[in-house]
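OP here, attaching both records as promised.
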Amino acid sequence: RSQEQFVTLREELDAIDEYLDIEVIRFGSRLAVTKTIALDTLDVIVPSLLLQPLVENCIKHGFARKVGPGTIALRSWRERATVIIEVEDDGLGISEERLQSALTGGIGLSNVNERLRVLYGDSGRLVLTGSPGKGACARVEIPLDVAVERITA
């Protein structure tokens, strides 16, 4: 993988595919991955390694101790002047108490949250939702007026 600070969402998803290939082997048929990616988001520039910590959290906190199958859903779309990227699981979920500290207390989520804040100010953000037994969803919002699209020749 290149050492670029920014990549297209397409490149970021390719890297996630490589990571998930390993996890699917590890979990076997217990882990399913679905993707609903809007074509008009694929060339949007995003911070490199933006999604891997979010997917890793799904695996580590959502599925590692879950009995039975689970699904990770990756979605992206444009909403007004923002690109929305979601990583959602139907794993063990997260308590209200943990939701309050998740973006500041851990390493992965706090790093993603801080990078978005530094790069995009108040316009970019990470929102975490979920509840016990019902999974969790990490929603990344990147402003399009800052997210420059790659121009192809």
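Record two, same layout:
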Amino acid sequence: PAAGLTGTIEGTVTWRGAPPAPLTTACGAFANPSVRVGAHKAAGGVLVYIEHVEVGRTIPSYAQPASVGGTIAKRGCVLAPAVQIVTPLPAGLAIHGDATAVKLRVTRPSGVTPFELQEAGRILIQAQPGVTRIEADDGSLGGAWVVASDTPYYAITDDTGRFRIDELAAGTYDVTFWRPPLPGTSNGKLVYGAPVVTHRSIKVDATRPARLDVTLER
């Protein structure tokens, strides 16, 4: 751990090609939740993070480390947010229901577990290091993805596609850009492939922000 770190990485994530089309399932029609494409092809909702940092800041701690993420809510035909990071570990995940009950399938690194989310109910589970996917068992809901890690260096792009990660030591970093896969449909159900993961290496010094712009594709 170190204090007074002044290195910064900032940039913009954009989208190449047509924006993802809306989806229709037994639940209804809704916007594709995997990525938000805005003006000038800006890609919002993309997770950007750095792991394996040898010298850096610590997650704020008083009695215990301040946790980030860990809450998912059913909102009509989607589970939101579509992507989030949970840190530090160990940490829990809370899934909140709305006015309609649904059967969920939670895929964690250790395996798949079914759950019943009752009306206005709540499910509590333990986050596991790596990636967790939460979706409806019948494929009717836009899924939610959780990346669980101990890194204190992360950002999610805003609606203009921008991100910023600061308090870095000078050095070279591997930056991960992570977004959920765009779901397809099969017999009216959503089906998913693998998440889309892009790595970029960048050198950071202490005098000025390092610029890192990335374009993502389907």
